[in-house]
Design goal:
Structural class: alpha+beta
Subcellular location: Cell outer membrane
CATH architecture of the largest domain: Beta Barrel
GO molecular function, one term: porin activity
Membrane topology: Multi-pass membrane protein
Strand content: over 45%
Oligomer: single chain
Radius of gyration: 44 Å
Helix content: 10-25%
Number of domains: 2
Shape: rod-shaped
Number of strands: 16
GO cellular component, one term: cell outer membrane
Protein name: Membrane protein
CATH topology of the largest domain: Porin
Largest sheet: 12 strands, antiparallel
CATH class of the largest domain: Mainly Beta
Length: about 350
């Protein structure tokens, strides 16, 4: 029973330690994403707005985008306590799905795409919920390039176009979870909200109704991205294995002394009392073996004393069995007139040497 309890405690300790392990050391990660780019509100900036006002063309509009795709790669470092820092590169691509505004309603003709790419420095914290599910939260900041590629649109009032790139500060918020596959590999799934702050792109705006006018200048837009990223992570550094629980200290051996009359192997009342105490002690502590060692004094021959010591040991062993101790736990031996408790010359009657030692181990 004691061994079962110790084994159970050890397993619980190891399981708890495993669930508490975090990413430690260098790691790399990457994945593919779906990207929803919110409709961009476009405002005609310097060089465009003035011309638009004089010709009756509206100064603002909206560009809508299809669901797009992208990817990200990252290299980072785990501090072993749930905190991770990483440098990430990402790319997002969305095609134009529609245009409206600028005083003429929806654009019947449109095309083009927006590409967004750059680098982010992220700081994340991963929660040790279980060995198989590790949610995390994070935030990042960096620099992103917004590229409008061959964006064109025409409605009843205006024709606009842009083919330019601008770089701006950006930030993102991250929420996701990892599913560890083993001590190095993990699957990841997260949601990311990323905003590029106020990109401005060179372009042109032309009024197609009379009187016609063409102007060049800046489009001021916004860029709000909602991304779902499915990826993998590989950790180069593995947390050191948890130290095993300390082994239980073995119980100290306990000894009971049973004394005999000269040349006798029968038990008196005091002897039976001591044997009873030994049997009771066995039930209150973890005992794997009981040694019953018989001895004599130096009176008599060595051969005779050897047999007498064995008879004394067997008498004590029999009493232990009578009190409920299994016989297979008892090792009964006789040692004759050796191992004297009190040193005496030969042929000496010494009461303390006429004994049986009961040793609980």
């Amino acid at each position: 029973m004691r061994n079962l309890l110790l084994t159970t405690a050890a397993l619980v300790g190891v399981s708890g330690a495993a669930s508490a392990q975090h990413v430690t050391g260098l790691y790399v990660g990457g994945g593919a994403m779906l990207n929803f780019l919110q409709s961009s509100d476009i405002t005609l900036g310097a060089g465009l707005n003035g011309s638009a006002a004089t010709t009756g063309m509206g100064s603002s509009g909206t560009v809508d985008f299809n669901l797009g795709y992208g990817g990200a790669i990252a290299v980072g470092y785990g501090f072993g306590n749930g905190l991770r820092a990483e440098l990430e590169g990402s790319f997002r691509y969305n095609e134009v799905d529609g245009m409206s505004g600028f005083g003429g309603g929806s654009f019947g003709q449109f095309r083009g795409s927006q590409r967004t790419y750059g680098v982010m420095a992220n700081l994340l914290y991963e929660f040790a919920v279980s060995p198989h599910f590790r949610p995390y939260l994070g935030a990042g900041a960096g620099y992103m390039w917004t590229e409008w590629h061959a964006v064109r649109g025409t409605n009843s009032i205006a024709r606009i176009g842009s083919d330019d790139t601008d770089s701006n500060f950006a930030y993102q918020l991250i929420a996701g979870f990892a599913v560890p596959l083993n001590e190095r590999w993990a699957l990841t799934l997260d949601y990311r909200f990323m905003q590029v702050i106020d990109p401005e792109l060179d372009g042109l705006a032309a009024r197609v109704a009379q009187p016609t006018a063409v102007s060049r200048g800046k489009f001021s837009s916004d860029s709000f991205n909602h991304s779902i990223l499915l990826g993998v992570r590989y950790s180069f550094g593995v947390a050191p294995p948890a130290a095993p629980p300390p082994a239980a200290a073995p119980a100290p051996a306990r000894t009971f002394l049973v004394f005999f009359d000269w040349n006798r192997a029968d038990l008196n009342d005091r002897a039976r009392q001591i044997i009873g105490e030994a049997a009771q002690a066995r039930t209150s502590q973890a005992v794997t073996r009981i040694e019953v060692n018989g001895y004599t004094d130096t009176s008599g021959s060595a051969q005779y004393n050897q047999g007498l010591s064995v008879r004394r040991a067997n008498a004590v062993a029999a009493e232990l069995v009578r009190l409920g101790v299994p016989r297979n736990e008892i090792v009964a031996q006789g040692f004759g007139e050796t191992n004297l408790l009190v040193a005496t010359p030969d042929n000496t009657r010494e009461p303390q040497n006429r004994r049986v030692e009961i040793i609980l181990r």
